Amino acid sequence: MFWGYTGKEVNMMTINRKKLRLAMARACMKTADLAEAAQIPRPTLNNVIKGRGIRTDTLGKIARALGVDVTELIDRED
Question: CA–CA separation, 48 vs 54, rounded Å?
Answer without folding.
Answer: 6
